[in-house]
Design a protein that fits this description.
Blueprint (H helix, E strand, L loop, with lengths): L2 E11 L2 H10 L7 E4 L4 E8 L2 E8 L5 H9 L2 E9 L2 H10 L10 E2 L5 E5 L9 E5 L2
Parallel strand pairs: 1-4, 5-8
Antiparallel strand pairs: 1-5, 2-3, 3-4, 6-7, 7-8
This protein binds zinc ion (ZN).
The site of zinc ion has 6 residues, from strand 1 and strand 5.
Length: 133
């Protein structure tokens, strides 16, 4: 598998508009808000150099981000690595015995294909693999 870069760092927030203020104050221009219905989130990306900061707000009390905040509070939620071929990466990781949350790619914000690797296999970090064309 071929890791291209740190794609983004995901931060769970209670209120996207409120939390966006910090990054706007730092002079980072947001790429706009997008809702990803499948994951019950609204996200907002802030480009920083070659990577991005992703703020995630839950759109439902039973969504994964709402549950994360309930358990851990707001803050760093996942690290995303860009890969050139997500399906091949998932096959390779599975063959190496890595525990995957998603064995098949799913739809992510910005038209990316994404899949999550279980924190049990990564030393406690929720790892997202992302492929963008
Ligand atoms: Zn993400």
């Amino acid at each position: 598998m071929n890791i291209l870069k740190i794609d983004h760092i995901g931060i769970a927030v209670k209120n996207l508009a409120e939390s966006s203020k910090l990054y706007e104050m730092l002079g980072i221009k947001s790429a706009g808000v997008e809702e990803v219905a499948e994951q019950k989130v609204k996200v907002c990306f802030f480009p920083v150099g070659d990577s991005e900061i992703e703020l995630l707000e839950s759109t439902s009390p039973d969504g994964p981000i709402a549950k994360y905040i309930e358990k851990n509070g707001e803050g760093l939620q996942h690290l995303a690595l860009r890969v050139d071929d997500l399906e091949a990466a998932l096959i390779e990781l599975k063959a190496k015995g890595v525990r995957l949350i998603d064995e098949k790619p799913r739809y992510g914000a910005g038209g990316a294909k994404i899949a999550f690797v279980h924190p049990k296999s990564t030393g406690g970090i929720l790892l997202e693999l992302s492929e963008k064309k």
